[in-house]
Design a protein that fits this description.
Subcellular location: Cell membrane
Main location: membrane
CATH topology: Arp2/3 complex 21 kDa subunit ARPC3
Keywords: Cell membrane, Membrane, Transmembrane, Transmembrane helix, Transport
Mean pLDDT: 84
Low-confidence stretches: none
Organism: Maridesulfovibrio salexigens (strain ATCC 14822 / DSM 2638 / NCIMB 8403 / VKM B-1763) (Desulfovibrio salexigens)
Protein name: Cobalamin (Vitamin B12) biosynthesis CbiM protein
Number of helices: 8
Order of helices and strands: HHEEHHHHHH
Helix content: over 70%
Amino acid sequence: MHISEGVLSLPVLASGAVVAATGTMIGLRKLDSEKLVSVALLSSVFFIASLIHIPIGPSSAHLILSGLMGLLLGWAAFPAILTGLLLQAVLFQYGGLTVIGINTATMALPAVACHYMFRPLLKKNFFSMSLGAFLCGAMSITLSALLTALALSFTDESFASAAQMIVYGHVPIMIIEGFICASAYGFLQKVRPEMLLATQET
């Protein structure tokens, strides 16, 4: 889901930077010492999981795990994802520094949105919990792909076909991440229920 440097227009880059900065500030304000270890752990998992890229036009497809991060961290997903993207840009030149704002926004904003959309399902029975976690994982990728496509489309109409390719190319990843999120949430509920406290945030 990384957008490369030199692709997007200045207004799109600026909009992404504003969203990323705002989300990161909110995330840092909500971040306490008890959640810090979870943020560091999930940021590391995000960093490693998204290193393997399959090029799709001006973007790429790879595991993101943003839904799981949103589910477990809430707004803290913003600084966690930003940290992972910054390390990837500096160490491996994935994405880039000028697009780090828009890349953070397209991944973290859907993660936080899904956290609030599907959180009510996590408070019911096992089937409802599994469904909520699956939808959080799958829909976060769906929304991220759509936001990435919109960012490209707003930059230049000639990117329309590439934008469609990005959405279609991420369909398998949507399903895979849904199952990963549901499995991880169920596992953590059994062995580390304290990591699920963010799912109860208001």
